[in-house]
């Protein structure tokens, strides 16, 4: 039985625009389920993008790589990502397939909501959880609160410099939960997805993202 928001994602229409070209697949946090990503999935669909959620197993992030891959379609133009654990699994998946001679997917990008750079309030100056980031050749969008206990901001800024094509967007006054600014975050994700090569044809004329504090990687 597919997870909530799973299966082939629906492509919405907004202000008369045509079907979206890029599919967005999101994984959930460590203590949540695919249903937790439904508001994000619905928000992306309302913005004219095809979106779905994947179900991940509990435990180490590496355990989620194969399930995430199995639930995403083998078609060009897929953006993967998620919240917390889901974001980490997505980056591990893209990095692993980039190194594999039997690459299956053609990823268009990664969207990382509240990436867990280290355990809560236990910063890791060695940035072990970002060691694979240099292998992420696709565009990567990092979205974070400046008070996230899972990602001290100075370390996240430093880690972002390891991304070949990364951007960090910071939302002041927020921790690990970005739902208080969900609409602004969704606008930024939609702008990012449409800026990828696969999604270039689905830009809504005149669309403007909500403002946020953007910190270059």
Structural account:
The relative contact order is 0.16. The protein has 217 residues and is α/β, with parallel strands linked by helices. Strand 6, helix 4 and strand 7 form a beta-alpha-beta unit. The N terminus and C terminus are likely disordered. It has a single domain, classed as Rossmann fold, CATH 3.40.50. An 8-stranded mixed sheet has the order 1-3-2-4-5-6-7-8, with helices on both faces. 24% of the residues lie in helices and 18% in strands.
Low-confidence stretches: 1-5, 11-20, 198-217
Strand numbers in spatial order across the main sheet: 1-3-2-4-5-6-7-8
Following the backbone from N to C, one meets helices and strands in this order, namely: EEHEHEHEEHEHE
* Mean pLDDT, all residues: 84
In the CATH scheme, the class would be Alpha Beta
Helix content: 10-25%
Remind me, CATH topology?
A: Rossmann fold
- The share of residues in extended strands comes to 15-25%
Structural class: alpha/beta
* Rg, alpha carbons: 16 Å
What best-fitting shape do the alpha-carbon axes yield? globular
How many distinct domains? 1
Q: Total helix count?
A: 5
Counting DSSP E segments of at least 2 residues, the number of strands comes to: 8
CATH H-level superfamily title? Alpha/Beta hydrolase fold, catalytic domain
Structure described in brief:
The protein has 217 residues and is an alpha/beta fold.
Topology:
Blueprint: E1 10-11, E2 23-27, H1 38-46, E3 50-54, H2 65-70, E4 78-83, H3 85-99, E5 107-113, E6 140-145, H4 153-160, E7 166-171, H5 182-195, E8 213-215
Parallel strand pairs: 2-3, 2-4, 4-5, 5-6, 6-7
Antiparallel strand pairs: 1-3, 7-8
